[in-house]
Every structure is written in structure tokens, then in C-alpha cells.
């Protein structure tokens, strides 16, 4: 089913369930915010509370009763109470028998308890049908109206009918229910709000590691070496020159690391002769954060563009150019135009501009609003074919930057090559392996394997 049709479903709630009263236990922040939204959607709401006194904070169309009285008025009861206070529900077990209990709770830590809160609730009230839902929606978002139909509400539970009733309420609120299966999934759903940028951890740590390494590498070559051997103070390189070396290096390495797991996966599949065997965990995790790696790479490429734009106004650069002009004037000698250098310089810039343009295009197509509007083939074309073209252009940009100094022994300082040479290692490996994989003798079996063909069926066990 495509996205549009699911949105249409989200806008068309099951009206047969619309008039049934919904009970909410707990008049705290979440209970009140959810109650307000449910009333707006046309459901009568009754609150079950320890105190039956209403306050101005409670939606005025809602009744506030004791837990037992409120529970008797509805088939669905949303438990908007912290897990540690669930114990009192055992005394209501008889009244709650056969009712749908919606567990909305979250914890403070990942895997805080041996079982999920929803499973704990099901143990406390065995006669009830427990459904997990709404825990990824915040009270603030409900109150401020910042929720839209694209907001997904994860729902899970063992009773299909109960789950359906809850999903009808979710749709009535203008949200999109996402059925995650049985109540066993509650543990995972409860961990979602506690995850801190899970997909960004590896890219950020890797970026920090690489940035630190290349910073000290460039500092040694470009600042410490001239100071020790020529007594020249180039410490101001730390402001622009060194960052402008690190940014393109990181952009290129990280872009190559977006494509490296793909070629590793291809080699593994060719070796095993099947796709029905899981990749090692580290490769799975690496593949899942390719988009984030690509976005960090794009950020570094953009910084490189900005740093490059300010080169002509740098005092050091202006000083060097005026010095060259003056020395030519004093010697009464004009340097002839070196055609090779002019070609290298223009090609280097042209490759950089084209590479950056495609880089930006890749970044734009990775945005959900764009990727949702292209089909799978178009997405693959942009991310894979254009992605490799970007990698080729950026690698060529770096190779041409080296130009005729590339691999020249005079460019080594303390046996350390220029930093850009190190940045070429991973992209060159990726491009060479990818090139080899294109040969029909490897591409054909790989395509067959990806279509389900198996050479060694024992691997799929
Ligand atoms: P809260 O403001 O602390 O409210 C919890 C309510 O539970 C209280 O107002 C109280 O209602 C009731 N309660 C407190 N102690 C009790 C006890 N000993 N026995 C029976 N009832 C008791 O918490 P909340 O922020 O509304 O969160 C409620 C639940 O929603 C939690 O499980 C939370 O994890 C979940 N949740 C919250 C949010 C959010 O943004 N706040 C988002 C998603 C999920 P009465 O005074 O009416 O009895």
C-alpha cells in the first residue's frame, strides 16, 4: 500500500467506534493532554482518579470519577500512570476483566525492568487485554498541536480486536498507527523514546576520531615541521589552512565509507553464494548508518567550499601574491604561463564543483520528503549510480590537487606524506573493488544471488 492510501486511512477513522466512551486513569500531564485530544475527536471521556474533584486543568467536557466507577463506563481504559503505581490495579482486577487496557508508559532507562511495562500490566490484570500505544507521543506535542498525520504511533498487543479498537482511536486523532505485532514488541517500543540519536553514534565518534588524527597530522607537517627546521611561525594555519585540509579529507573518506559496506556485502555474498545468511552485526550496523555518514560528509564538503571561498581575502595569501609580483618586477622577469599547471588547476576546480553539486543532490534526495516521492528504482539510481559518480569526481578532484607533486619525495616531511594522500586510500579501494565487481564473471552471479539463487544452501540455515 502506498503512503497516500495510508494517509487516507488515517483520515478516515472507523466511525462505528466513535461514540464509545474512553476511560483514562490518571489526571496527570499526559492523561489530560490525551483526554483533550480524544474529546476533540468526538469520543466521550471519563477520567479515573484518586481524587474526584475536577480542576480547571481537566478538560471541561470530561467526567472525573473514582477508578472503579470510571472503569465501568468504558471498554477501553488508558492507563496514564507511572509503572511504579500500577499495584492498585490488582484490586480492580474484577472490574477490569475483559477490558482493553492501554499502556502508555515509558521508563527512565533502557531495559530498566526485566519485562516491559505492558507485560507487567498484563501480569497484574490477567483478565484484561493489554495493548501498548502512545508512548512515543509527548504530552507537549498533544497540547501544542504539533502532531501531524505523519506521526506514527507504535501499537502492539496479543488481542487483535483490542489492538484494532486502539488503532481506531489513533486514527481518529489524525495519527498513523503502526502495528508492531504481539505484546513482546512492547519492550522495544518502550526503548524508542530513550534512544539518543542511535544512528548518529558511530558517524559522530568516527568523525571525532578522524578529525583529531588529521588535525595533529597536519599540525605536525604544516606548523611544527617549518618551526623546527626553518624557524617559521605558521601557527595561524590552525584557523583556516588546517581546517580547510581536514574538511575535504573527511568529506572524501566518509563518502567512501558510505559505499564500502556495500562492496564488502557483495564480496561476502559472492563468497557464501547466498543472500540468506545474516551479515556480521558490525556490517549490519554500518549499513544502517550510511545515510548519517553521507550527511556528515556533505557537511564537511560544504565547510570546505566556504573555507575555499575566503582564500583570496586571506592576509597570508595576499602577502604571498604581492611578494611574487614584486620579486618578478625587481628581477625584471615575467614568469611564462605554465599550461600544464593551468590545466591541472582548472580541472581540479571543475571536478570539485561538479563533485560538490552531485554531493548536494545526494543530500537532497536523502530527505524523507524527497525520497518518499521517488520510486525505488529512482532512489537507487540517485544513491548508487550518482553516489559512485560523486565519489569518482571527488577522488579525481583530490588526485588532480596533488598534480605533478603527487608522490614526489620532496613533499614528505618527517617521512609523512601530504594528508590528502592518506584520504585517497579508502576511496581508491572502494572504487577499484567496485570496478572489479562490475565484470560480468562476478556481476552475473551476484545479481543471481540477490534474486534468491543459492550456490551453497548450507549457509542459509
Ligand atoms: P504525571 O504527571 O506524574 O501523572 C501521573 C498520574 O498518575 C497522576 O497525575 C495521578 O493521577 C496518577 N497517580 C500518581 N500516583 C498514583 C498512585 N500512587 N496511584 C494511582 N495513581 C497515581 O505523569 P504523566 O507525565 O502524565 O505520565 C503518565 C504516564 O504517561 C507515564 O507512564 C508516562 O511514562 C507516560 N507518558 C508520558 C508522556 C509525557 O509527555 N508526559 C509521554 C508519553 C508517555 P490522579 O491524581 O488523577 O490519580
From TrEMBL:
Keywords: Copper, Endosome, FAD, Flavoprotein, Ion transport, Iron, Iron transport, Membrane, Metal-binding, Oxidoreductase, Transmembrane, Transmembrane helix, Transport. It is found in: Endosome membrane. Gene3D superfamilies: NAD(P)-binding Rossmann-like Domain. One of its GO terms (molecular function) is metal ion binding. Residues 21-107 form the Pyrroline-5-carboxylate reductase catalytic N-terminal domain. It is a multi-pass membrane protein. Its main location: membrane. GO terms for cellular component: endosome membrane; plasma membrane. Its cofactor is heme b; FAD. The keyword Transmembrane applies. GO terms for biological process: copper ion import; iron ion transport. InterPro entries: Fe3_Rdtase_TM_dom, NAD(P)-bd_dom_sf, P5C_Rdtase_cat_N, STEAP_metalloreductase. It comes from Thalassarche chlororhynchos (Atlantic yellow-nosed albatross). It holds the Pfam family F420_oxidored. This is STEA4 Metalloreductase.
